[in-house]
Write a structure and sequence with these properties.
The structure holds two protein chains of two kinds. In chain A, about 30% of the residues lie in helices and about 20% in strands. Chain A has 14 helices and 22 strands. In chain A, strand 2 and strand 3 form a beta hairpin. Chain A is globular, with a radius of gyration of 25 Å. Chain B is mainly α. In chain B, helix 4 packs antiparallel against helix 7, helix 7 packs antiparallel against helix 9 and helix 9 packs antiparallel against helix 11. The interface between A and B is medium-sized, with 33 and 26 residues.
Chain lengths: ~550, ~270
């Protein structure tokens, strides 16, 4: 009787979920946390805009988020030149934009010209724009073209996975796309409706037109609890980012729906403000600029406890700028920073710090105390901050945790620089190290601990600058990997960023969604959106 | 005193005693982390179990009681005092000036309080100890939370000023200052007392809302607000009912304040 009841309850839940997704025109449903900030495909900087662009626009190549290999998309084949300076694409024939306009090499040429225009500087062309000048584009015929750069570009073909192809001649201009769906309706703060692109080129193994879904309904929903409740009622097909608590709750009631995509590219870290322009007391700036001080703080934090208590084991301790998932870039010879408070105190003693009556003091007698800002409302970060506070108390360091609204926090870390230390996360979108270029170059505004340096202020920052610039033009993959590994070694040694954890990609995927292959990389569930299908559709060709 | 008021006072007495004796009830402290026993069920060592970081829930509750139940009345006292001055002034000044003051109350009422608090908090220096931050939060609640009460005070003063007994006093030749001091102010006392008692739970809940947004009391200091924020996971409440203790404490306090402030059933003096 008990067994019957146990099997009957999930069956009833499944039936209820199936009933909630109506027959007839099939509709893929999910939520975004915020409105898209831009519908300009070349100027997309937020996840919501990126999602809409991914659904409505086409790309020459696509990285399979599971195998991390490039696959043909609008380009049926391509060849990177041996010197790494150019790539020749052969495009699919018979492809049309969503308004019926034909797709040719001229569209690709115009898109690349716009993306690399130094006057416009669109975000989508960041990786393609070079100091040496715009690329030379040679259109051989309607289906073939070559893009050549003045200097080699590492991982050149992968850069075209991020560049949406726009029409050169369509009357709808950027509104015409090559993606599987077309934007039909947008109500700010409420929802977006997308309909099937009738001209979408891709077909399945049986020759049936893709995508399988007829429509996409995206609701704007900031509240994670409501999103979760809707998913459990069968109103949504997936949630692409869950926190650990919601993941565990879901796993308890529907193990099949809770998917752990493994380690993500994301990192949680803290850093100290080392900017000379920040109005910090002299002694504090001296602490924060001391490698020994930063290393001592790093070695006094129990990362295992962060993984165990904050992420319930669904994370890896922080190793450095690259998550272990970022292969081949992750330097596997680096181990997670050890928990060694005694070693930390010895390191500090060598710098003149002394532990007196449980309080750490510097050589000038100043008690070591600083504020740690983080964004308010983030439970994981609040817990991490509490653990760090207790860990550092063991070496006599006192910290004051200050949660701030995100705009206030961003104001402090980017403009006023009025803070001591910051605890925040980095969302890695792209696997390629060039994605982190802005953070590591000392001249960059997002070189967080000491931004906008006219020349590198330290030898190790100069070394990181050289390594990052060298890897960006290195065509030989093993050599490039060595450069990135060396950069990680320096970061570990100098600890400008104290990496704490790399969380798992936790998702919810409805059993009603066929062909879902959720990945740790964004867009986690949607990367193969044209093959996603409602489970009740009998003619769906399942991906083997 | 009615039975309801006695019950309310007794309940408040118990809650305040728990806050005052927090260090005796939970000598381990609210911040101590027993990392080997996170999210533990109630045991003789931890009567309400432990939170996700292994901190004793009872210790956090009683220390949170101290924070919320002592600072909320202080903030309510500030707000009531400001409401008394502003409400009284708007009623006794010239008619035009009174209208301007009333308009000012309305403007202040229409300002989004939460937004103001967030902005002011962000403008404060970072390196302030948790208790100072807490005092600032409640002071801001007190300084910003008086306009609705001021309107009520104004209405009460106007009503008294135009009453028959005031008319009679004026006809008997009583000067204005004496009329207000001897006749009107005593009539305001119950109104002010009621406003004070009503504002206490409002500020407790206000701090709770700020806590839920992560803007009230900062870690590791507990308050009812920060403890209530842990109740977002409603699914586990049936199997872990002890986690509802902060909500029950808040509910009890609000109820007790209302009972203690209620004059229903009392015969007039």
């Amino acid at each position: 009787m008990t067994a019957c009841r146990h099997t009957a309850i999930p069956a009833i839940l499944l039936l209820a979920a199936a009933a909630a997704i109506p027959a007839g025109p099939s509709e893929l449903r999910f939520c975004l946390r915020s409105d898209p900030r831009s519908f300009d495909p070349l100027n997309v900087a937020d996840e919501s805009s990126e999602t809409v662009r991914y659904l409505t626009h086409g790309f020459l190549v696509r990285m399979n988020r599971r195998t991390l290999k490039l696959e043909p998309s609008l380009a049926e084949s391509w060849r990177v030149s041996s010197d790494g300076r150019g790539v020749r694409f052969r495009l699919r024939s018979g492809v049309k934009f969503s308004d019926g306009a034909p797709f040719t090499s001229a569209d690709v040429a115009r898109t690349i010209s716009r993306a690399t225009d130094p006057a416009l500087k669109p975000q989508a062309g960041d990786a393609l724009r070079r100091d040496e000048g715009a690329p030379r584009i040679t259109v051989h015929n309607a289906q073939e073209l070559t893009v050549a750069f003045a200097a080699p570009i590492a991982g050149l073909d992968y850069l075209f996975d991020e560049l949406p192809i726009l029409s050169a001649h369509s009357p709808l201009k950027d509104g015409a796309g090559l993606g599987p769906f077309v934007l039909a309706e947008y109500r700010a703060g409420s929802h977006l409706n997308l309909t099937r692109n009738p001209y979408y080129w891709a077909r399945d193994a049986k020759g049936a037109a893709l995508p399988y879904f007829d429509r996409v309904r995206i609701d704007i929903q900031q509240n994670r609890e409501i999103e979760m409740a809707r998913f459990r009622r069968g109103e949504l097909h997936f949630i692409s980012a869950l926190d650990v608590e919601n993941f565990d709750r879901l796993a308890a009631v529907s193990a099949a729906s809770a998917r752990d995509g493994g380690l993500s590219l994301e990192s949680e870290m803290l850093w100290f403000n080392q900017a000379a322009s920040a109005r910090l007391p002299v002694h504090k700036l001296a602490w924060f600029r001391s490698t020994a001080f930063r290393r001592a703080i790093s070695d006094s934090i129990r990362r295992d406890d962060i993984v165990r208590l904050v992420y319930k084991g669904r994370a890896a301790p922080g190793y450095g700028p690259f998550s272990p998932a970022a292969r081949p870039w992750f330097n596997a010879s680096l181990k997670a920073a050890p928990y060694d408070p005694q070693g930390a105190l010895q390191r500090l003693a060598a710098e003149g710090f002394r532990l007196q009556s449980g309080v750490l003091r510097d050589s000038g007698g100043n008690a070591v105390e600083f504020s740690l800002i983080t964004n308010s409302g983030n439970r994981n970060r609040a817990r991490m901050a509490s653990l760090i506070e207790q860990d550092l108390a063991r070496i006599g360091v006192k910290i004051v945790i200050v949660p701030l609204e995100m705009p206030s926090l961003l104001e402090r870390i980017t403009r006023t620089l009025q803070y001591d230390a910051c605890l925040l996360g980095l969302v890695g979108v792209d696997l390629d190290p060039n994605d982190q270029m802005n953070m590591w170059l000392s001249s960059s505004a997002t070189h967080q601990w000491n931004p906008r340096q006219a020349t590198p202020e330290t030898a190790w920052e100069a070394a990181i600058d050289r390594l990052m610039k060298a890897q960006a033009v290195e065509g030989n993959l093993p050599k490039r990997i060595r450069l990135i590994h060396e950069m990680q070694r320096i970061v570990r040694e100098q600890a400008p960023m104290i990496y704490l954890a790399h969380p798992h990609a936790l998702l919810a995927v409805s059993p009603q969604l066929a062909n879902a292959e959720p990945a740790a990389f964004r867009p986690r569930v949607l990367w193969n959106v044209e093959r996603l299908a409602p489970i009740h559709q009998p003619e769906v060709a399942r991906v083997p | 005193m009615t039975a309801a008021r006695k019950l309310g006072c007794a309940g408040l007495g118990l809650l305040y005693a728990a806050g005052l004796l927090a260090d005796l009830i939970a000598p381990g402290g609210y911040a101590a982390q027993d990392r080997d026993h996170p999210s533990a069920r109630p045991t003789p060592a931890h009567w309400l179990g432990t939170d996700e970081l292994g901190r004793d829930r009872l210790a956090r509750l009683v220390h949170g009681t101290r924070v919320s139940l002592f600072l909320a009345p202080a903030a309510a006292a500030i707000a009531t005092a400001l409401a008394a001055v502003a409400g009284f002034a708007s009623a006794v000044v010239a008619r035009r000036a009174g209208q301007v003051l009333t308009l000012a109350f309305d403007v202040l009422l229409s300002l989004p309080l939460l937004f103001l608090l967030i902005t002011l908090r962000a403008a404060l220096p970072l390196q302030v100890p948790p208790w100072t931050s807490l005092l600032i939060t409640f002071t801001l609640l007190g300084l910003l939370g008086w306009p609705s009460s001021a309107r009520i005070v104004r209405a009460a003063v106007l009503s008294s000023r135009d009453s028959n007994y005031a008319l009679q006093a004026r006809a008997a030749g009583l000067v204005h200052s004496r009329l207000f001091a001897v006749h009107l102010l005593p009539h305001l006392r119950p109104v002010l007392a009621a406003q004070f008692l009503l504002l206490i739970p409002v500020f407790i809940l206000g701090e709770a809302n700020l806590g839920i947004l992560g803007l009230g009391v900062v870690e590791p200091l507990p308050s009812w607000g920060s403890l209530l924020a842990e109740l977002h996971n409603l699914d586990t409440l049936p199997s872990e009912p002890w986690r509802t203790a902060p909500a029950l404490a808040l509910l009890s306090a609000v109820l007790c304040f209302h009972l203690a402030g209620s004059r229903h059933g009392e015969s007039p003096a």
